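[Automated response] Your request has been received and processed.

Submitted sequence:
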Amino acid sequence: MLEATVRSLRSRSLPFVLAILLTGSLAALAMAETLSDGTKVEHWIMPNGLRVVTRHVPDAHINVVTLCYRLGTLEDPEKQEGLADLCGQVAITARAGDVPQRQLAEIDQVRPSGWGLRIATHITELTEAGPKDVFPGVLHQMCQRLRGLVVTDALVQRERAQVKERLKQNYDANVEGALTLLSAQVSSGKSPERAMRYVSGEGVESIKPKTVRDLLAERLVPTNSTLSIVGDLQGMDVKKLLERDLGDVPGGKAGPPIPWGHLMSARGIVNRGDLTEPVMVAGVLSPALSDSMHAYFLAYALSIGAQGNVQWGKPSAPLTRRFDFSFAIDPELMRYYPPIPIASISGSDPLDLLFQANSDKIADSTNLRAASEAAAWLAGGPLIEGVARRVATDPSVTFNLSQNLAALEQYGSPEFWADYRRRALGAGQIDPKQMFDYFANPRRQVTFVLKPGD
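Generated structure:
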């Protein structure tokens, strides 16, 4: 996965597309819409600046709430790599109002329906789930985290040790995840050495408790946060619940805007003694999310990814996939995991070879239409057929939908996403050569190789 993540969800994972996979009255701004899949989406902004999105999904297996605030791994200061991770772990374990301090392992007991901590490039998400009959209590406890945390020195010291171990373990045990995280770091201008300081957990050692306490007090505030609530909300007055729990919470200040379009082409190589053969990630920088071309890029990325799976075949260990565009997590870096023998052919590029062999299939109207519909769904549109069928039985549907909608609400307005979906569905009108040239341009590519060696 692209983000450093801790997650517990006792269910099957979603299919492939999810992995590519995003003062005054109570509502200062409100929008509601019933989508063609029968789900109802509502957006509003509370008087204290908290942006809220709900999605009523009839017969959903569980209800899920995600609290998302603007702080991500690309903001980590030098020599404090892992700061966002440490803040996120403290945010979900610290005492908050009537919710006592806890450890990550204890959350499994109180949230058997699922919970999640996702620290991505620009955002952090705290997610908790529960059956409909107990969900108001789940929502109440999540809201307590916006009322303020009790962040003690002892808590930070405990979580610092755990975060260091988690980051290091993720890198050591998950080669694919290491490639993903390292490519995200170097694309933001960080050196391979600094990227390694993050994934090894070395950077968290110097972080002081006061730094964590001050940063959470600044960032985990309504004006800098979004709240996503997804599930069977029939008969549930969410606005009344939020007014009760958050109506008197000060808004605070918004964090710095996300610097869309600031990533850069980069290359990196790191030796790993546990590998017998090299492995590689080949990333492509998207247009800035604010660019109208991004929706077309996403649709073509999904179509290209599908053909890459066919062209390159099933990956062998330690890789598990050939394509990943975790859209809601990092919408500006798409990744392929090509076979190294192809990628190392003199004078050739793995993406060029993929385009040459599959250009007709990638731009085929049927394939591109399916990819466009998936892109529109990832951007907040109707559930695609394969996902809609699983709502009543698979809790990961609403779980992932809640996380993605929280991120989208952080990234743009409902009007922005409505226009984005319209563009995505029109991707077939774009000249395929224009898109192929974009993807194949070396100035838009990010590669990272892990190779055998000490």
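Summary generated for your ticket: The longest strand covers residues 445-452. Residues 153-173 form the longest helix (21 residues).
If you did not submit this request, please reply to this message.
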